């Protein structure tokens, strides 16, 4: 029986990226829709639920994507409401690749480093990747995770939301200047930059002065990179006594996690891969 | 050569259900379009007609679907106008699953029951499934088929249309109350409920008082069901001296008919599966 | 690894024709988008570029189609801008089938005929097929290629554009009457009709009086054909001392070129098939 993946994308044009990865993960056919809103979900999901029965439902699954994380999360809620009893299919939620990217980022750091009782600072970290990475580092035992924004109001709002959504306690902070960043990195062991492409966030003058700092990771692949002296292919390279993880090393591992997650969807008909469970999958993969 | 199915759906979002069934029927690839109107058909159908030649055209076929039966029938007319001589492909018309569902419903009843010279009443039967079921029961020799609506004008209009379209003579009737239904079931042998989901149409007090009644069937899968005491999985179960056919038993057989119809499309390049010929296919399948 | 073709079509509804040909050329899956404009290209192309690495990129390719040749050419420019270094995929540009049709038309003529130092007249030749055919005949050594339009301003504009785009020197001409055509065919060896369907352009009275004329070809498959006494299936048939090539013979060869081009896309990740290189592929195929 063919493995069918229903791609529901909140963007008007459904992602090519997600389709290629799905094919490369063993999916036989993708049924793809763009511009999906929660009100359109029921009929589409019923089409998957009511065409195959019992254990055969493990061959049908749903991928929820799109550029806007919250829009895709709303789709996920609408999808879950369609299910009843054992009449359900597996679902993966990875809007904008945020879950798989954050899992790859966190695993690159903790895979070879004991983060327990350590402090991490995620610069420009209030977006989906930064938030999820914070969650994973706390889960792995970090003593403190600071999430910075250019506006303290933004990082405080995120801290509140993470507390209520995940019972995760992050430290909100504001960073508008090199001086701010320098102060935030005091006593920090890990620094992560989650800023937009081509924005430098962490100059060498700052990180070289941060004496406790051991690890830096950056998800920006477009020069100038987020961390000065970082190379996109850095995969744990030691330089000036600190370890570097660049965007391509993280991205390659993200692809592994993404593919492994898709494969997992078809092992049962009741798997839900979201920001929590995708990390569990990542933990089982060698980076 | 790959078996290609061109799905033309009149709904803005093409049906997932129809795509999954097509893949499960051996189709290799589906080329899917939603929001199709008759004026858009020519270019799409020519793309299928002019890419493969001679006997190879048996590997290309068209499925016409959508929620609105008449809109899909208009597509069918537009598609047929594109063909000439032997340059044509097979076509299946099953808007809203009406043809396959009605065929399954009728076959469940007549498969194990001699309906010749018997009277059937189809409650809330003026929709596509009810109309087609009436047609099939008359074809199988029923002496009378009554189609009810809440408005006699509606059932009379349908009776007139069925006369002109199929030369089928049904008895129009109005049923607005339990009393109406009780009167209509007098001397009836078969009662079928084709109402909307979660609407009870036939209380036990009525059917248990209908002494000639032998068989009841219901296409509503959402409680309360159309017939009181019906179970969705009833597949000819006898209860209180009468035989019951529920929505899931009918639905499972509908799936078989749907799949078998899709498979038939690829046996030649000139097969036309519509409300008449899909029933012929259903007759060859064991329910 | 599956061969994936990204179909970007400038028409609102992406071409069925192009999809069927792609499947028949060994493509495993098509990711299809209609209504594509240059501003939407980047995200789609990046989805193809960043999901597979190194030599694996040869399994991903792009097909650019649509009814309007210039719109598709603009897509091609936008696509090329997305690539950098070796991070690229193969691309085929064949809007409205113009490149493959023109290549088939030219090859039918020059495959069995030495066109060097000969004169060709392409009637109603200012459209994409006529222009490209002119280019190919000049490339093969024709001494003169005349392109006619009903308006000399149109053919002069095309002559100017072909000079600047391809450094190709064609002779612009106006043909509004049988008399015009008769005069234009003086000393011509080849006459080609590229008019719209069902428009007769070359009456027998004219071509039979053209004493030097040896070959006629016509791309119009709908009667009345472009050349009087032509048959759509003529494939080099001699009649009245002249050789005839009809639309179906040319169309069948066009299909071979189209399929062979698609197959070529997957031999490397840096192939660009456009109006120039598709002709090179056509030269390697037996008509």
TrEMBL record, chains A, B, C:
Annotated organism of origin: Nitrosococcus wardiae
UniProt KW keywords: NADP, Oxidoreductase
Record domain Quinate/shikimate 5-dehydrogenase/glutamyl-tRNA reductase: where: 105-194
Lineage of the organism: Bacteria, Pseudomonadati, Pseudomonadota, Gammaproteobacteria, Chromatiales
Protein name according to UniProt: Methylenetetrahydrofolate dehydrogenase
Sequence ranges assigned to domain Methylene-tetrahydromethanopterin dehydrogenase N-terminal in this UniProt record: 16-96
An example molecular function term from Gene Ontology annotations: oxidoreductase activity
Gene3D superfamilies named in the record: Methylene-tetrahydromethanopterin dehydrogenase, N-terminal domain, NAD(P)-binding Rossmann-like Domain
